[in-house]
Design brief:
The protein has 235 residues and is α+β, with helices and mostly antiparallel strands. Helices cover 30% and strands 44% of the residues. Strand 10 and strand 11 form a beta hairpin.
Length: 235
């Protein structure tokens, strides 16, 4: 199973709590983001979640090591009688004969809408797809390294990018998929210089964290292999 089981046994509770405290102490700013609640039957509720945080010693994001898990809650008389925790979400879904949720597919759809809005020049919709406190992080080699925090700063940056180019400004999607609770968008940015009239194509990959239907973090990479590594995939 790759997790632990909690019941009403007091000794089991104490041991589990001590082990959980030890685990938490190895991370900085560790938090759990619930992605979906799914009622299995009258007694069981499955909660799909993702970890966010950074290892104190390694500096690695928790998503690079173990990002997505699940908790199976057995509820009786309005109380949790038993909890089975899975570090491996795929194992939890397989054990229950379920498939990945529609909610994560909806996160991918958010980025599809982002690209559609960008390509039609609708920056109002582009900005609205971000959480008010979102952050955008350009590739380190970009002329404006950022990061840009909040909708106003993000929109201002995007407006500056559009003003730098002439009639052509299109993001042509090559890949759009979910990995480690994030949405990876690989695309060709095809633009035309406003002054030079020269057509240019840039290959970019954006790793997007989506929560509650809004983009809360968007990080760009010129190197697609680095983007894949950021979500725990082979380069």
């Amino acid at each position: 199973m790759g997790g632990w089981t909690l019941s009403r046994d007091p000794d089991g509770l104490a041991g589990m709590a001590e082990g959980w405290r030890d685990y938490l102490s190895t991370w900085e700013e560790l938090r759990t983001v619930v992605e979906e609640y799914r009622e299995i039957d009258e007694e069981r509720v499955l909660v799909l979640y993702a970890f966010r945080g950074r290892g104190k010693a390694s500096g690695l994001e928790v998503g690079q090591m173990r990002g997505k898990g699940a908790g199976l809650f057995y509820v009786r008389d309005g109380k949790v009688a038993r909890l089975v925790n899975y570090w491996d979400r795929e194992r939890a879904l397989a054990d229950l004969g379920l498939e990945e949720s529609a909610m994560l597919q909806a996160n991918v759809e958010i980025l599809r809408r982002w690209h559609d809005a960008w390509n039609r020049g609708d920056l109002d919709t582009v900005a609205d797809l971000f959480h008010p406190d979102a952050g955008v992080i350009p590739d380190p080699s970009w002329m404006e390294p950022g990061p840009f925090r909040g909708r106003t700063a993000i929109r201002s940056w995007y407006e500056g990018l559009r003003e730098s180019w002439g009639g052509r400004d299109e993001a042509v999607v090559r890949e759009l998929f979910e990995a480690s609770g994030q949405v990876v968008s690989r695309f060709d940015w095809e633009v035309r210089g406003r002054t030079s009239g020269i057509d240019t194509r840039l290959e970019l990959t954006a790793v997007n964290l989506v929560e509650a239907g809004k983009i809360v973090r968007q990080q760009y990479y010129f190197d697609h292999a680095e983007a894949r590594k950021a979500v725990g995939l082979e380069g």
